[in-house]
Structure formats: C-alpha cells, structure tokens
Backbone:
C-alpha cells in the first residue's frame, strides 16, 4: 500500500511539471514558422507571442532589419524568468535603419518596448531606432552585455513620463549590467535629449547600473532627471558627450554632462561609486552633476578629469539629506572659454567633503602621471571575455601615485592600510601583468565593436617611435585596406576602419612594427 501511494505521488508530480520551451529567431526566418531551430521566426514580437513564463528565445547571428517596435508585454515570474539571449558564439544585430516614421509618430518609434516583468536579455546589438533603442517600463528585468547605438533618442531608457505617479513599485529593481551605449542623437529636439543611458521620469525603487559605458552621445552619458527613488551607479564610465563636432551640427542643444544626477527639483538621494567621467567639455558640462536634484547625493571613490566642472553639487536641496563626497579624484578640469567658473569641484555649503583630492587636509595632488592610462581608446577597448570592463590599465593608479592609501573606509573593499582615492584600488599583481605586457614594443587591441557593420575601431600603442603599418586582409590573404603606413611617435592611437563596399565575412588586420607583427581577426556582418 505504501509503495502504491509513493508511485501515485511521483506520477502526480511528473504530470504537473512545467518544462520550459526554446524558440529561435533568425534573419532568414519567417513569422509563419513555428520557431524551431530548423524553422525559426523573424521578429521578436512573433517569438514573444509563442512563449510562456520560463521559456527562452535565442537570436541567431546576423543583421535583422525591422520597421516596427518589438513589444515585450508578457511577463515572467520570480521563479520563471523569460530569457532572450544571443545564440552562443553568435552576434545578432537588431537594426531599424530603414524605418522612417512621420514626425508625429517618431516619439513612440522605439526599437524594443519592454513593459513586462522578469526578463533576462543578453547579447543584443540594438541600433538605429527612430526613438529609444529600448524603452523599459517593466520591473525585475536584467539587461546584460547589450549595445545601444545610433538611436534617435536615449539608447536605453528606464522610466515612465514626466509628472507620473509612482509609489516605488513600478519600473523597479531593474539591473543593467555590462552594457555600452554610444552615438545616440535626437534630431527631433534639436539634439537635446539623446543620452547613452537614462533612468528618469519617475522610475521606481532599486534600479542599478553596473559596469556600463556611455560615450559620444549628443546629450548626457547618464540622465537621472526627475527621479525620486535611489538609483545606484557602480563601476560605470562615461566620456565625450555633447560634442556637436561629432556630427557636424551648427544648431545644437545637447548638455554634454557625464552623469546628470537629477532635475526639476525632484528629490532622489542617489548613490554613485567607483565611476569615471572625463572629457565632457561642452558649455556647462559637468562630469558629475547634481542638476537641481532636491536631495543630497552620495559619491564615493570616483575619478573625473577634463570636464568643464569635474564635480558640480552646488544647487540647493529641499530635504535634510546633504551631499556626501569621499575618496574622489578630480584633476585637470577643462578651462572652457565659453563658461566662467570651470573648476574641479563646486559644492553646496554644508556638503560633507572628506578625503577628496580637492580637500586641503587630504594632502594629495593628482595629475595624469598618476595613472597607467587615461586614453579614450583604452576606455572603449574590447571588454573582457566575461563582459566586464577592459582590464588594460585604464584609470588605474601607478605604484608611485600619492593617492594610494589616502582614503577613508566607506564600506568598499580595499587592499592596503586604507582605501585608495579614485575608482580603482592599486593592485601590485595587476601592475606586474601590465609591465610584462608592455615589454614588447607595441600592442594592438581587439577591434570594437566586433562583429561590426560597417565600421569598427582598432586601437594600438607604441612604447617607442617606430615605422608602423596597419593593414586589413580578407580570408584569402588579399590586402583590402592600408590604414596606417609611416613613422609614429610613442603613444596610443585609434584608427577607424570602414568596410563599405566589402562583403560580409572574416577579415584579418595586421600591425607591423619594424620586424615584428601581430594579427587579429574581425567579423563583418551585413
């Protein structure tokens, strides 16, 4: 009798198990297909119509050209997340480059519109949408290793709308991890609103960005305008935003801040730590900017240089919380000829400012010589294999820096007798590896982005003056382009390769310095 009961319990449990399904999307697919690996669908919208909570959608590699918003309105659950992944080893490019909506419709012409909850999206390249590359209005979603570029508004925007009502439970607990956003530009508002990332217009509680990069967007790197719940920015980098010369504009309203941390007097006490803002040089541009946030903001262990104002926290606050800045580095602010008052730090009276390079008591003066590298090409170098930020010495302290062990404990792990100042702890083991790597006369990075269409950037560095060639070959060994040929001084260089007119396929680029050369592969997908 006991064995019979046991058998019936097992049988019941087996008949009530929910097995997750897998669906496939391909550039050669058709929405009349069932979504199997041999008969994939074409649109994400169609794939979403097939799934249930807990299912997975794989995007095969190649370029998808869409002319409608891909809407994600279904939801997963806390135990059954909906997964949307790049197929392992492949690179899907989602493009809306041929979509030309009317001016009245442009504001809603997003690439992906995510209103559902409990999604995990990883490995998508999202570009050329008329409005946002992705607008996220759901909760408990994770967006990882995605790239947003050349969109007609902010690359990835999290939030609702101006003056929305939110008790904190809407658009909440979204996690943006190891994503990039660049060259987003908004012609619809005289190039004012397109940021790299935005978490603005009344998002809820618990939203966080980690390990993300944002550069050369027409407005700001990050925009947290009208936010009333704490947003956390951790190990994020932003640079060179708001520069009209990138696009050749004459009429231009982009702000060009690195991290814009508020707006319109709405009080949101955000936390920013281990972040970097540099070379945001346009009029009124700040590396870290309060921007009339009505609350005090906490900034720990950040690094800023080359901005008109490196740290700007001098607006009035309307709540009792004050600004707190500790262990931060600021140096070499940009003496903007179009704005008076350029400086390393503008702080409101009463701000808690301790152990920063501008605090006299800290006794530390930092210059570019304190760092292994500060070059933009190293900042935009290819990510590590796990998707993390490039570990190539960018913004890391040399062993001789006076910023080592000069901070105070703010709860962030540290290695020495006290925390270092700035975004990264000095690590002797890392420096040994970097010195070993630099024993050769040059190094060349993996191109970025890769795969690419139609252009990509190749960076290289020389330890001494040399005669250098950088050439591109097809897979048969035929030379298709000479990018560099001539004498170059020691330093870091960045070269753009445009593959217009070349077919899709594998290409090889080869850097030759004297009698030594190094080659790397890159993939063009059209």
Residues:
């Amino acid at each position: 009798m006991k064995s019979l009961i046991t058998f019936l319990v097992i049988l019941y449990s087996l008949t009530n198990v929910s097995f997750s399904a897998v669906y496939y999307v391909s550039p050669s697919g058709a929405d009349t297909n069932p979504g199997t690996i041999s008969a994939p669908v074409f649109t994400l919208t169609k794939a979403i119509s097939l799934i249930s909570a807990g299912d997975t959608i794989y995007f095969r590699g190649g370029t998808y050209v869409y002319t409608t918003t891909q809407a994600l309105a279904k939801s997963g659950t806390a135990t059954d997340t909906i997964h949307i992944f790049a197929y392992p080893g492949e690179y899907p490019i989602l493009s809306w480059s041929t979509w030309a909506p009317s001016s009245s419709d442009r504001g809603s012409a997003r690439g992906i519109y995510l209103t559902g909850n409990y999604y995990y999206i990883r490995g998508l390249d999202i570009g050329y949408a008329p409005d946002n590359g992705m607008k996220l209005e759901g909760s408990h979603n994770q967006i990882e290793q995605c790239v947003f570029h050349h969109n007609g508004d902010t690359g990835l925007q999290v939030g609702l709308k101006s003056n929305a009502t939110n008790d904190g439970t809407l658009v909440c607990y979204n996690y943006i991890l190891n994503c990039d956003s660049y060259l987003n530009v908004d012609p619809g508002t005289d190039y004012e609103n397109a940021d790299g990332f935005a978490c603005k217009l009344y998002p809820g509680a618990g939203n966080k960005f980690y390990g993300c990069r944002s550069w050369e967007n027409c407005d700001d790197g990050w925009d947290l305008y009208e936010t009333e719940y704490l947003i956390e920015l951790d190990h994020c980098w932003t640079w060179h935003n708001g520069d009209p010369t990138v696009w050749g504009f004459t009429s231009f309203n982009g702000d060009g801040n690195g991290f814009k941390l508020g707006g319109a007097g709405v009080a949101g006490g955000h936390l920013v730590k281990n972040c970097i803002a540099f070379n945001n040089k346009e009029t009124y541009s700040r590396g870290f900017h309060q921007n009339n946030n009505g609350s005090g903001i906490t900034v720990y262990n950040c690094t800023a240089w080359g901005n008109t104002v490196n740290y700007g926290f001098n607006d009035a606050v309307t709540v009792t919380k004050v600004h707190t800045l500790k262990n931060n580095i600021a140096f070499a602010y940009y003496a903007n000829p179009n704005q008076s008052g350029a400086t390393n730090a503008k702080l409101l009276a009463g701000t808690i400012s301790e152990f920063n390079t501008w605090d006299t008591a800290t006794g530390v003066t930092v210059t570019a010589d304190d760092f292994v590298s500060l070059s933009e090409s190293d900042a935009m170098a290819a990510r590590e294999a796990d998707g993390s930020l490039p570990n190539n010495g960018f913004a890391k302290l040399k062993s001789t820096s006076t910023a080592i062990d000069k901070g105070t404990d703010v709860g962030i792990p540290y290695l020495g007798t006290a925390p270092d100042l700035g975004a990264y702890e000095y690590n002797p083991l890392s420096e040994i590896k970097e010195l070993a790597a630099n024993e050769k006369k040059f190094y060349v990075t993996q191109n970025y982005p890769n795969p690419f269409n139609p252009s990509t950037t190749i960076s290289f560095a020389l330890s001494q003056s040399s005669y250098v060639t950088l050439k591109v070959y097809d897979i048969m060994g035929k030379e298709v382009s000479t990018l560099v040929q001539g004498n170059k001084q020691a330093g870091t260089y960045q070269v753009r390769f445009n593959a217009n007119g070349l077919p899709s396929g594998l290409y090889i680029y080869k850097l030759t310095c004297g009698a030594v050369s190094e080659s790397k592969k890159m993939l063009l997908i059209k």
Residues 4-18, 431-439 have pLDDT under 50 and may be disordered. The chain has two domains: 60-367, 442-524.
